[in-house]
């Protein structure tokens, strides 16, 4: 009966792992080891929480600094970036936001525990429940650190892209003449001719023979 | 005025004494139940062979340690055969009051070893 009660108290299904006595008698050194392990287990959860709080504060500061830095540096620079690169920066920032948010949630989870506790773990006796919670927290802490560092890396690449990405080029001119269609940036106009810098080199077009002339953001 | 609690007079609690006996391990092997809430974590539950308090002793594969390797499973001696079982060091971890217990200690001082079979692979 007592075993039944104990079983209900521990809230798990007993497994068939028959214990057997050990012929070698326990020594005083064994007791010291058992005491050390018991002490570590009893202090495990607070220690994980404290470590997580320290990481949360440190990485939070780092992220805040990085976000502020990229916001200040980023906005004016993105407008001058070539369009494809500006899109890439947008994706990098979006990814940084997603990764950073999950990292922050993981760190908070590790430092403060999860908001909902599963019923089964509630029933576990406290040393075991705390140990399992500590293991979960340590796992969340590791992912939180990795995700936050990944977020920092993404932010840095976004900033680096705005710095080192190619500049946006001016508007292109596209002209149609009897000898074909040309597209490129305008070099100069004068004496009835238009000089375009196209992908195939400089082309001089006689303006009198141009049938259409239009501006384009990019050449085909 | 001091009240005596009728019918609730406890017998004098056992003093704390660090002690072991061969029958502790035998008693625990016979009466304790084993639960496995997660792989790699066992709970040995039963009554302390000395003070009879209900205790739950976790048998874990590691303990969190900031800035260092995880605290490995403390076990004594080489694994028996192909790691079929291992010796687990156990002590009473009850929260009851035992006189003469040093500061920061738990339990009544009883300790023993028991063989725990390894998880079936
Ligand atoms: Zn005891
Ligand atoms: Zn006790």
List the helices and strands and how they pair.
The complex is a heterodimer of chains A (220) and B (121).
Chain A: H1 2-10, E1 20-21, H2 28-78, H3 83-112, H4 119-122, H5 126-164, E2 172-177, E3 180-190, E4 193-198, E5 201-206, E6 212-216
Antiparallel strand pairs in A: 2-3, 2-6, 3-4, 4-5
Helix pairs in contact in A: 2-3, 2-5, 3-5
Chain B: H1 22-31, E1 33-38, E2 41-47, E3 54-60, E4 85-91, E5 111-117
Antiparallel strand pairs in B: 1-2, 2-3, 4-5
The structure holds zinc ion (2 copies).
Question: What overall form of chain A do the CA principal axes indicate?
Answer: rod-shaped
Query: Judging from the principal axes of the Cα atoms, what is the shape of chain B?
Result: globular
Secondary-structure element sequence of chain B?
HEEEEE
Which sheet architecture does the biggest sheet of chain B show? Answer: 3 strands, antiparallel
Distance between the termini of chain A: 84 Å
Q: Order of strands in the sheet with the most strands of chain A?
A: 5-4-3-2-6
Brief summary of the model shown:
The complex is a heterodimer of chains A (220) and B (121). Chain A is an alpha+beta fold and 220 residues long.
Architecture overview:
The complex is a heterodimer of chains A (220) and B (121). Chain A has 220 residues and is α+β, with helices and mostly antiparallel strands. Chain A folds into 2 domains: 2-15 and 29-164, no CATH class; 172-216, SH3 type barrels (Roll), CATH 2.30.30. Helices cover 60% and strands 16% of the residues of chain A. Chain A has helices spanning 2-10, 28-78, 83-112, 119-122, 126-164; strands at 20-21, 172-177, 180-190, 193-198, 201-206, 212-216. Chain A has a 5-stranded antiparallel beta sheet with strand order 5-4-3-2-6, with no helix packed on it. The longest helix of chain B is centred in the first third of the chain and has 10 residues, at 22-31. In chain B, the strands form 2 sheets. In chain B, strands 1-2-3 form a 3-stranded antiparallel beta sheet, with no helix packed on it. In chain B, strands 4-5 form a two-stranded antiparallel sheet. Chain B is built from 1 helix and 5 strands, in the order H-E-E-E-E-E. Chain B has one helix spanning 22-31, and strands at 33-38, 41-47, 54-60, 85-91, 111-117. The N and C termini of chain B lie far apart (64 Å). Chain B is mainly β and 121 residues long. Chain B is 8% helix and 28% strand. Chains A and B meet through helix 1, strand 1, helix 2 and helix 5 of A and helix 1, strand 1, strand 2, strand 3 and strand 4 of B. Strand 1 (20-21) of chain A pairs antiparallel with strand 5 (111-117) of chain B. Chain A: Keywords: Membrane, Transmembrane, Transmembrane helix. Chain A: The chain crosses the membrane at residues 54-73, 85-108, 145-165.
């Amino acid at each position: 009966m007592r075993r039944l009660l104990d079983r209900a108290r521990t809230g798990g299904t007993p497994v068939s792992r028959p214990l057997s006595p050990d012929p070698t008698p326990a020594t005083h050194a064994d007791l010291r080891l058992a005491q050390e392990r018991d002490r570590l287990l009893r202090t495990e959860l607070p220690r994980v929480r404290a470590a997580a709080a320290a990481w949360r504060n440190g990485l939070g500061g780092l992220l805040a600094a990085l976000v502020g830095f990229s916001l200040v540096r980023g906005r004016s620079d993105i407008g001058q970036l070539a369009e494809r690169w500006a899109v890439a920066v947008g994706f990098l920032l979006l990814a940084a936001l997603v990764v950073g948010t999950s990292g922050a949630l993981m760190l908070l989870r590790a430092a403060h525990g999860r908001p909902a506790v599963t019923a089964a773990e509630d029933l576990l006796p406290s040393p075991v429940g705390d140990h399992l919670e500590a293991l979960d927290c340590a796992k969340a802490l590791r992912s939180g650190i990795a995700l936050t560092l990944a977020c920092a890396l993404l932010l840095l690449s976004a900033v680096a892209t705005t710095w080192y990405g190619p500049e946006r080029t001016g508007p292109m001119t596209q002209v149609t003449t009897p000898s074909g269609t040309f597209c490129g940036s305008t070099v100069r106009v004068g004496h009835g001719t238009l000089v375009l810098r196209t992908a195939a080199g400089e082309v001089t077009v006689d303006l009198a023979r141009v049938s259409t002339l239009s501006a384009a953001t990019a050449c085909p | 005025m001091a009240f005596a609690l009728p019918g609730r007079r406890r017998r004098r609690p056992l003093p704390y004494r660090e002690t072991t006996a061969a029958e502790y391990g035998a008693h625990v092997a016979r009466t304790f139940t084993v639960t496995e809430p997660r792989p790699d974590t066992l709970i040995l539950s039963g009554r302390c062979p000395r003070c009879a308090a209900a205790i739950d002793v976790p048998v874990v594969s590691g303990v969190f340690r900031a800035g260092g390797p995880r605290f490995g499973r403390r076990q004594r001696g080489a694994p028996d055969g192909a790691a079929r079982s291992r010796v687990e060091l156990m002590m009473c971890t009850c929260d009851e009051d035992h006189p003469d217990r040093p500061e920061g200690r738990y339990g009544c001082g009883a300790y023993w070893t028991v063989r725990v079979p390894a998880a079936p692979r």
